[in-house]
């Protein structure tokens, strides 16, 4: 075997951002949320991810602003540490080692230097009992501090972070577990425990799901499994406590939150409606319906202006005072399972798979960002558990990405299967897919496979679908049937094929579209799509064929199939005979569309191995044992935007496209080479130069401009009156100078870019290191100014460019700070 | 925050005929004017000159109607027995008619008494016509002869005795004064030349010939007899061109539209079929109440006149241009258009600040109620009379949506007798429709489950349930029959397919759609 030390399996994006309650910072500009093993810092206005606070080695289980310093944040993790970060710069300040997994964290301004964490009971090893522990954080200057001074506050608490909350001014702490509510008063050092019956009279479940405390009043709100909210008062007595009940939700309340002034109570649950109750006037409610999917957490910013809800489909919504959704941060939507295959959209090169119920999501892999959701089902989604909904089960793109075929199905108990085949055309104008044809009930039973003819030169597009009803159908785009129809062409059935009443399982077109292979249990039939003639049958009894794949390019004479009795067969289509076969338990076989390579995920002893091979060669190109645990059933080759130039034999298969796969736990993984990783690291370092949030170049250009307008109303007025280009003398001059007098465009461009990178207007903070640099910069600036008026002296500008690479690391840091200054030259340019 | 997605009303492929230019043209007639005559109407002939009166021969009378009159403008009653074949001369001045009493009478259109009487035939004369020189008359009779008469001195010019059975149709050439064609019950068509003593061409139709028609160019001849309509090419010596068999009873009359592009045939099977004369495909079809004996089209197709065996004359006039426009105009409500368009076409000036207003989503009434989760009300709205009768697909879509939401049972339950009767009425009307059956069967099952306990309390509901049961039993029988036919077809296909070396590829789907059975009732 070849040594493959340089190819690694890496986790690629799409981690959960709705796992724990997000935190809004005091100035409402950032949103922090736990995401896998890191904490992500988002901007609330631009939705951009600004930092990843990386350092934890386990799942991050809680994020909390430090009560005494609003610019620092605690995060706790299952790796047994609590870390303190500066989120504006993304720097780790301190690490407190607790020693056992931490499940949630809370703190109050009243308890300086103490944090409260939930850990498993130390006494016994049973993992289902948890305790609330106060940790005294030692004051020391070290980065890594051991915090071993633990004192138990409450035992038998819930590990759910929503079930423990501090009361008014940190005087008491309320914790709910199951049917009990426990309130601990710090002054009296005494706890009160209130219990509910398991079921109330109407059969509703009383289990507490979440707790919230009023910030100004002695009132605790609890949310229950049956959708009720109870408001507890007088709980500092054992017997005379009272509660009132609010009921709107029809299923469990998953999150409760009081606004900072305590005027409103927010609640949310499965219905995906944010409900705002007036405190003390509970009959008055406001609703914000149709937020997309079930609400899991609600947070309010400290000034009460922003609400923030996280949803079960890996989404965070930012709402301005319960009226308007102002921003949506959407991660890769993960359902319980991906029923469509993973695909790559040939146009946008984005990953396409099931998203929200009834939608397909288009996910940009390089940017780790959801591009958009395509609504396939186009029906109002009813948020109710136990309801059978339409699900997108199959999807396919044609070679150019101009057609998308989707199959949605809904199976109700004792009712017929409802199937819809939809064909979507790509609309150039709106740059999205538009529904072209809906075929209801295309088959009488479930559709097992679907594929487009991938030949690029054929005039007509063809789609083949196979179904459990024993037929496969070919669909073709036809001209409008009769003259009076004003709509364009639509799809219709071209051919219905069957083979001895057997059930077809999978189908595959050859690369040139001249052959169609359909497997009927253990028989593979090869058809000619031009004449619909059965050309030949291939079979490898005794077990059914699971996967079919034609070879590409030089291997196009081969047809590969895997069978249920762990065989990988390769047939030669020229001789119609079996070329070779090998015994492997292959769970997934797929072909790289750009090369001859094929990837086979092979399940062995609880973990999955990967083999990459060419059908014509006996030796695999690459193989890796134990790629991940469990069975891999979804994977895709995503073409690279630019080819890699790796010459090493083992990594050559990654040159044209990248292999992504989904683990059984729905993590998106990929294979990278060392060189690629290095390059990525370098580029990410360059990106981090501008660390002032929301100061995007757009802001600098437009925001500054706007500020100046505001400051100077007169000039602002005049600017409004006159169209922009006329008032800018420099641009006008630049535009009116004859082209032959101007220096070359590439020269102008490089100067423009350099002025963007390093600019000087205020030399106040400059240290001596940079001063020589500054000199040259100034010269450059001068030259630019002169250039624009007279377009002379092109020689000097290269100075800055030559000097820049000679910077040391310290200088780089300084430069970073310099970068923080403004791009004020441009608005200035606009006004000159 | 997404907006509410309205209920999807499925678009079903339209059943019935497709809308073509021809259907638009031939549908553009007013409701027919019906006039009762004294007996079966055997012939209708339009005057070739304006105002295009037409002569209707029925029993012992010939009535002449004006183009828009419903009363005859003139009547000829001087027949001893049943009159036949009242035809106008090309100048519209004279009218000739045969009679059961073998006498042929010639009338002045403005007069009353016959100008001339042509006696010579020994049996009833069924066919009379003027030759193109306007001075001679052709007659054909049940005595197997056809004769030429001179009008001025009322003498017989020639007799042709070649047919061996009754002569029941005949036509003279409009271009040549000497040529005429007769058709007889001896299955033959004969072309005669007055200058010769014998027929010059004989064609065999195969059935007793009932009607003949010459194309304006006179190159083609159309004959009708039995269930067949045949087209002959006279210039190729009477070569048969096409044989059409679209009627299922004897074709009695033929007619050409004024443009010459459409051929009409009327039959005893109560249909008038319109053929395209280039490909001889049926492009339109009229239905009438009784067997049709005669048919005529006014010049420019201004009206279609049809005479039937039950002595009813049906006249359909073409809709005038503004009338047909009026109907489309009625659909658009007049004053609101200006309200809608108000301010829409205002172009913002340079300094204007444009405030964009969110487009208000318009929801149907049932959607508004679904949005509020008022499921019973939504179903009530969808069951309103107009929707239920005109757009059953909307009602079905709402039922389907309720089923998807899992609230169909709630929506169906709790109805009084009237509400339930309305629901059952809808089911009876639509449950056997294959487009709606899958949805409505579930609804019907739910209704039975819910209202099981109240069966027997209301006679209205009970009667409807019985009707529903009857309907379903009949439908099951139909389905069984269909499956049997399908089975027969399958065996036929299987036996007729040639045996190949390669295992046979899948059979093409047959047109008959398989439908599911419901045995629950």
UniProtKB/TrEMBL annotation, chain B:
Name of the gene this protein is made from: utp15
Gene Ontology BP annotations: positive regulation of transcription by RNA polymerase I; rRNA processing
UniProt protein name: U3 small nucleolar RNA-associated protein 15 homolog
Function: Ribosome biogenesis factor. Involved in nucleolar processing of pre-18S ribosomal RNA. Required for optimal pre-ribosomal RNA transcription by RNA polymerase I. Part of the small subunit (SSU) processome, first precursor of the small eukaryotic ribosomal subunit. During the assembly of the SSU processome in the nucleolus, many ribosome biogenesis factors, an RNA chaperone and ribosomal proteins associate with the nascent pre-rRNA and work in concert to generate RNA folding, modifications, rearrangements and cleavage as well as targeted degradation of pre-ribosomal RNA by the RNA exosome.
InterPro entries given in the database record: U3_snoRNA-assocProt_15_C, WD40/YVTN_repeat-like_dom_sf, WD40_repeat_CS, WD40_repeat_dom_sf, WD40_rpt
Protein species of origin: Sander lucioperca (Pike-perch)
UniProt-annotated location(s): Nucleus, Nucleolus
PANTHER family from the UniProt entry: U3 SMALL NUCLEOLAR RNA-ASSOCIATED PROTEIN 15 HOMOLOG, UTP15 U3 SMALL NUCLEOLAR RNA-ASSOCIATED PROTEIN 15 FAMILY MEMBER
Domain U3 small nucleolar RNA-associated protein 15 C-terminal per the UniProt entry, residue ranges: 345-491
UniProt WD repeat ranges: 118-159, 244-285
GO CC terms: nucleolus
Alphabetical keyword list: Nucleus, Repeat, rRNA processing, WD repeat
Subunit comment: Part of the small subunit (SSU) processome, composed of more than 70 proteins and the RNA chaperone small nucleolar RNA (snoRNA) U3. May be a component of the proposed t-UTP subcomplex of the ribosomal small subunit (SSU) processome.
């Amino acid at each position: 075997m070849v040594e493959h030390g340089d190819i690694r399996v890496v986790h690629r994006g799409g981690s959960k951002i709705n796992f724990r309650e997000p935190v809004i910072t005091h100035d409402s500009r950032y949103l922090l949320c736990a995401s896998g093993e890191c904490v992500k810092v988002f901007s609330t206005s631009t939705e951009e991810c600004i930092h990843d606070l990386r350092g934890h080695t386990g799942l991050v289980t809680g994020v909390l602003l430090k009560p005494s310093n609003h610019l620092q944040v605690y995060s706790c993790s299952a790796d047994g540490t609590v870390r303190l970060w500066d989120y504006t710069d993304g720097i780790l300040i301190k690490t407190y080692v607790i020693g056992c997994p931490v499940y949630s964290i809370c703190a109050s301004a009243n308890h300086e230097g103490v944090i409260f964490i939930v850990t498993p009971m130390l006494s016994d090893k049973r993992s289902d009992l948890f305790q609330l522990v106060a940790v005294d954080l030692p004051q020391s200057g070290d980065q890594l501090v051991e915090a071993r001074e633990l004192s138990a506050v409450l035992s038998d608490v819930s590990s759910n972070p929503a079930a423990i909350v501090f009361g008014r001014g940190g005087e008491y702490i309320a914790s709910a577990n199951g049917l009990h509510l426990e309130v601990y008063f710090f002054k009296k050092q005494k706890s009160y425990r209130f219990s509910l019956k398991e079921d109330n009279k109407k059969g509703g479940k009383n289990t507490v799901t979440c707790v919230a405390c009023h910030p100004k009043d002695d009132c605790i709100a609890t949310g229950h499994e049956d959708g009720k909210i109870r408001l507890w008062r007088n709980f500092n007595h054992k017997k005379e406590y009272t509660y009132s009940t609010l009921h709107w939700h029809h299923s469990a309340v998953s999150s409760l939150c009081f606004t900072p002034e305590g005027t409103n109570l927010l609640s949310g649950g499965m219905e995906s409606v944010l409900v705002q109750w007036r405190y003390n006037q509970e009959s008055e409610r406001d609703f914000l319906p149709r937020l997309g999917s079930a609400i899991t957490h609600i947070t309010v910013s400290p000034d009460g202006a922003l609400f923030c809800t996280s949803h079960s489909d890996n989404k965070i919504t930012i709402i301005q005072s319960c009226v308007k959704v102002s921003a949506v941060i959407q991660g890769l939507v993960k359902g319980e399972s991906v029923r469509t295959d993973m695909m790559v959209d040939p146009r946008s090169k984005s990953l396409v798979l099931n998203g929200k119920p009834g939608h397909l999501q288009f996910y940009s892999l390089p940017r780790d960002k959801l591009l958009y959701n395509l609504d396939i089902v186009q029906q109002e989604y009813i948020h109710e558990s136990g309801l059978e909904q339409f699900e997108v089960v199959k999807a396919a793109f044609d070679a150019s990405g101009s057609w998308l075929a989707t199959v949605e199905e809904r199976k109700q108990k004792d009712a017929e299967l409802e199937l819809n085949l939809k064909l979507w055309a790509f609309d150039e104008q709106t740059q999205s897919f538009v529904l072209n044809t809906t075929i209801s009930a295309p088959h009488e039973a479930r559709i097992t496979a679907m594929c487009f003819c991938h030949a690029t030169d054929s005039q007509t597009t063809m789609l083949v679908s196979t179904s459990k009803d024993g037929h496969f159908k070919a669909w073709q785009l036809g001209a409008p049937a009769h003259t009076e129809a004003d709509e364009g062409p639509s799809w219709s059935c071209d051919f219905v094929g069957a083979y001895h009443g057997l059930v077809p399982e999978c189908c595959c077109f050859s690369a040139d579209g001249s052959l169609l292979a359909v497997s009927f249990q253990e028989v593979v039939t090869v058809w000619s799509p031009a004449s619909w003639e059965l050309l030949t049958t291939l079979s490898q009894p005794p077990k059914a064929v699971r996967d079919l794949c034609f070879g590409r390019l030089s291997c196009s004479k081969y047809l590969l199939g895997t069978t249920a009795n762990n065989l990988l067969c390769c047939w030669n289509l020229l001789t119609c005979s079996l070329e070779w076969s090998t015994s492997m338990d292959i769970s997934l076989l797929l072909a790289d569309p750009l090369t001859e390579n094929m990837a086979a995920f092979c399940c062995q002893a609880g973990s999955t191995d990967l083999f990459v091979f060419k059908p014509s060669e006996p030796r695999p190109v690459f193989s890796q044992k134990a790629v991940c645990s469990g069975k891999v059933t979804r994977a895709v080759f995503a073409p690279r935007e630019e080819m890699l130039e790796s010459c090493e034999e083992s990594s050559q298969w990654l040159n044209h496209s990248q292999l992504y796969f989904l683990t059984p736990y729905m993590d998106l993984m990929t294979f990278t080479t060392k060189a690629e990783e290095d390059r990525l690291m370098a580029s990410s370092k360059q990106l981090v130069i501008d660390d002032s949030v929301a100061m995007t170049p757009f802001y600098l250009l437009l925001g500054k401009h706007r500020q100046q307008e505001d400051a100077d109303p007169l000039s602002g007025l005049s600017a409004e009156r006159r169209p922009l280009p006329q008032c800018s003398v420099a641009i006008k001059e630049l535009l009116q100078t004859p082209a032959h007098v101007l220096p070359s465009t590439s020269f102008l461009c490089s100067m423009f870019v350099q002025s963007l990178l390093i600019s000087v207007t205020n030399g106040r903070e400059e240290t001596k290191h940079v001063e020589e640099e500054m000199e040259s910069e100034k010269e450059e600036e001068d030259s630019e100014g002169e250039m624009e008026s007279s377009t002379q002296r092109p020689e000097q500008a290269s100075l800055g460019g030559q000097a820049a690479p000679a910077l040391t690391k310290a200088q780089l840091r300084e430069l970073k700070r310099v970068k923080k200054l403004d791009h004020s030259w441009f608005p200035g340019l606009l006004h000159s | 925050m997404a907006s509410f997605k309205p209920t999807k009303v499925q678009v079903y492929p339209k059943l019935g005929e497709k809308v073509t230019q021809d259907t638009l043209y031939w549908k553009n007639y007013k409701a027919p004017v019906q006039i009762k005559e004294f007996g079966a109407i055997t012939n209708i002939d339009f005057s070739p000159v304006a105002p295009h009166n037409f002569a209707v021969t029925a029993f012992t009378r010939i009535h002449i109607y004006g183009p828009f009159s419903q009363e005859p403008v003139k009547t000829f009653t001087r027949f001893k027995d049943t009159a036949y074949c009242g035809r106008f001369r090309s100048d519209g001045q004279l009218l000739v008619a045969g009679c059961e009493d073998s006498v042929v009478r010639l009338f002045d259109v403005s007069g009353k008494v016959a100008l001339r009487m042509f006696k010579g035939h020994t049996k009833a004369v069924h066919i009379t016509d003027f030759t193109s020189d306007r001075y001679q008359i052709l007659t054909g009779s049940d005595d197997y002869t056809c004769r030429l008469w001179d009008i001025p001195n009322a003498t017989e010019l020639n007799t042709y005795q070649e047919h061996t059975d009754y002569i029941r149709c005949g036509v003279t050439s409009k271009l040549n004064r000497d040529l005429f064609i007769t058709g007889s019950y001896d299955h033959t068509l004969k072309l005669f030349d007055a200058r010769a003593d014998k027929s010059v061409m004989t064609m065999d139709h195969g059935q007793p010939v009932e009607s003949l028609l010459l194309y304006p160019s006179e190159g083609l001849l159309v004959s009708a007899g039995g269930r067949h309509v045949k087209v002959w090419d006279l210039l190729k010596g009477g070569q048969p061109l096409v044989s059409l068999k679209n009627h299922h009873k004897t074709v009695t009359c033929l007619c050409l539209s004024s443009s010459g592009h459409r051929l009409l045939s009327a039959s005893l099977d109560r249909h008038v079929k319109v053929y395209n004369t280039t490909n001889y495909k049926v492009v339109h079809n009229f239905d009438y109440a009784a067997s049709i004996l005669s048919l005529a089209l006014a010049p420019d197709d201004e009206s279609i006149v049809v005479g039937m065996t039950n002595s009813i004359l049906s006249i359909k006039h073409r809709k005038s241009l503004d009338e047909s426009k009026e109907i489309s105009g009625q659909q658009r409500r007049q004053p609101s258009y200006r309200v809608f368009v108000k301010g829409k076409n205002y172009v913002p000036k340079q300094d204007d600040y444009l405030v964009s207003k969110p487009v208000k989503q318009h929801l149907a009434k049932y959607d508004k109620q679904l949005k509020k989760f008022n499921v019973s009300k939504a179903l009530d709205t969808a069951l309103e009379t107009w929707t239920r009768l005109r757009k059953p697909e909307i009602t079905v879509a709402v039922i389907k949506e309720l089923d998807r939401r899992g609230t169909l049972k709630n929506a169906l339950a709790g109805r009084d007798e009237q509400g339930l009767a309305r629901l059952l009425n809808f089911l009876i009307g639509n449950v056997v429709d294959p487009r709606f059956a899958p949805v409505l069967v579930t609804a019907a099952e739910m209704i039975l489950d819910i209202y099981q306990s109240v069966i027997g309390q209301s006679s209205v509901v009970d009667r409807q349930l019985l009707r529903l049961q009857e309907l379903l039993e009949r439908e099951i029988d139909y389905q069984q029959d269909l499956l049997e036919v399908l089975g027969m077809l399958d065996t036929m296909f299987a036996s007729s397919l040639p045996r190949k070396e390669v295992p046979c590829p899948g059979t093409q789907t047959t047109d008959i759609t398989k439908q599911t059975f419901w045995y629950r009732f």
